[in-house]
């Protein structure tokens, strides 16, 4: 055991918030004689944390957390969980990475100054343990749907949570690799658990069942993760959640209009329509594009976050800003160029349900649209008004296809945006 080098006369003169307010956009060295104090919530005893201390401003109901990077192994011997520590900030660097504050030393990479680990030889000049002894840390109970930035770097507990079924039977981490495992609640809300491939429990199999998980909450921008100190932070004493049916199929969802305006390629779009009398979640649905004569998917759009209303439309644009300018309203989904919504008229599109079934098809996979009955270059492809369900096999009789050539029974008529298009309107 290391010597007991605790202190008792150190007095904090600043808060976490006041220190963070000093940051003006660039990593800098603190020059003021500032001292903050907090309570340690992380531990490297089982190797899932390495050279970092996470601490929060109160053992109960914390309002903020912080992290400091230190080049000290077995730091739990010096700063155990629940220990009250003081940090002398003068001479330390304060920075921000992916919207999260960090304290430590500094290093320069490609001309950029970043916060790095404080060398072991000088850690004792900045980080001190009070002689108060350890106190119990009461983790904040929080739901996956109620994550808050204020709780970043603090100890939290999730109730009624389990590992996703697809990962059962897997170890906590792959050997030598930082590994993400997915936790989910009974409503299919998920959060990532991050595990070190060097931790003592790396090879242990993920537990089955449901219950509580306690760990340090951290994030990168708006992406949250949790890391446990040891497997004792997991207590699964309940049966797994009942199966949640939240993926649905329906042949009443189909492609109703494709647009490739002759005057404005940025005003392209794909329109889907739901001819049924009920709203349908599109979780697991995908829109796929086979470019030209390709037999492999060139690009796809995941529609999982969307719901298509009863007798309603879903308009997808590769340029949402231009779409709004041209058509006067915001598309339901803005995606990138070269996506399925950005076809130049000779590609094939496929609408696939959560179970891999093709619900609707425009064109023929493996056949370039040029000169065919599924070319809509500089024109449009509009589903006939009497069609009320998808078709996994393309049938020209269900479509009005116009283009700049008029080949193979299509209509030779270039289309101009916005006057020749009817997004969110079956006419």
Task: Write the SSE topology.
Layout: H1 16-20, E1 28-29, E2 35-40, E3 52-56, E4 65-69, E5 84-88, E6 93-97, E7 100-109, E8 112-116, E9 127-129, E10 140-141, E11 155-163, E12 179-185, E13 190-195, E14 210-220, E15 223-227, E16 234-238, E17 253-259, E18 269-274, E19 280-281, E20 286-290, E21 299-302, E22 307-308, E23 313-317, H2 320-327, E24 333-334, E25 348-352, E26 358-362, E27 380-383, E28 399-403, E29 411-412
Parallel strand pairs: 10-11, 13-15, 23-24, 28-29
Antiparallel strand pairs: 1-6, 2-3, 2-5, 3-4, 5-9, 6-7, 7-8, 11-12, 11-14, 12-13, 14-15, 14-16, 17-18, 17-27, 18-23, 19-22, 20-21, 20-25, 25-26, 27-28
Structure description:
This protein is mostly beta strands and 427 residues long. The protein is built from two helices and 29 strands.
């Amino acid at each position: 055991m290391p010597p007991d080098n605790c202190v008792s006369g150190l007095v904090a003169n600043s808060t976490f918030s006041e220190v963070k307010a000093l940051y003006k956009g660039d990593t800098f060295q603190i020059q003021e004689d500032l001292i903050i104090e907090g309570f340690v919530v992380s531990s490297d005893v089982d190797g899932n944390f390495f050279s970092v201390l996470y601490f929060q401003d109160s053992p109960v109901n914390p309002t903020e957390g912080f992290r400091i990077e230190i080049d000290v192994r077995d730091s739990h011997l010096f700063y155990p969980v629940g220990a009250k520590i003081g940090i002398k900030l003068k001479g330390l660097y304060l920075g921000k990475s992916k919207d999260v504050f960090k304290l430590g030393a500094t290093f320069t990479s490609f001309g950029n100054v970043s916060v790095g680990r404080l060398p072991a030889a000088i850690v004792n000049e900045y980080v001190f343990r009070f002689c108060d002894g350890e106190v119990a840390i009461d983790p904040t109970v929080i739901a996956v749907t109620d994550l808050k930035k204020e709780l970043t770097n603090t100890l939290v507990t999730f109730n009624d949570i389990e590992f996703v079924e697809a990962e059962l039977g897997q170890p906590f981490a792959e050997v030598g690799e930082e590994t993400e495992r997915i936790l989910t609640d009974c409503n299919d809300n998920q959060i990532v658990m991050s595990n070190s491939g060097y931790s003592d429990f790396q090879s242990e199999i993920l537990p089955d069942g449901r219950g509580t998980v306690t760990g340090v909450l951290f994030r990168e921008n708006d992406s949250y993760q949790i890391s446990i100190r040891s497997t004792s932070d997991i207590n699964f004493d309940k049966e797994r959640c009942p199966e949640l049916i939240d993926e649905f199929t329906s042949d009443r969802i189909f492609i109703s209009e494709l647009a490739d305006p002759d005057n404005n390629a940025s005003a392209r779009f794909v329109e889907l329509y739901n001819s049924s009398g009920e709203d349908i979640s599109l979780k697991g649905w995908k829109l796929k594009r086979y470019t030209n004569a390709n037999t492999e998917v060139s690009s796809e759009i995941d529609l999982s976050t969307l719901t298509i209303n009863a007798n309603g439309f879903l308009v997808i644009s590769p340029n949402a800003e231009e779409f709004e300018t041209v058509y006067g309203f915001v598309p339901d989904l803005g995606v990138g160029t070269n996506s399925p919504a950005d076809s130049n008229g000779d590609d094939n599109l496929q609408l696939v349900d959560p179970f891999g079934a093709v619900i609707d098809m425009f064109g023929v996979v493996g056949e370039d649209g040029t000169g065919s009955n599924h070319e809509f270059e500089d024109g449009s492809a509009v589903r006939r008004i009497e069609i009320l369900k998808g078709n996994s096999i393309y049938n020209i009789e269900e479509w009005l296809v116009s283009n700049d050539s008029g080949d193979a029974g299509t209509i030779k008529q270039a289309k101009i945006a916005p006057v020749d298009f009817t997004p969110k309107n079956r006419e």
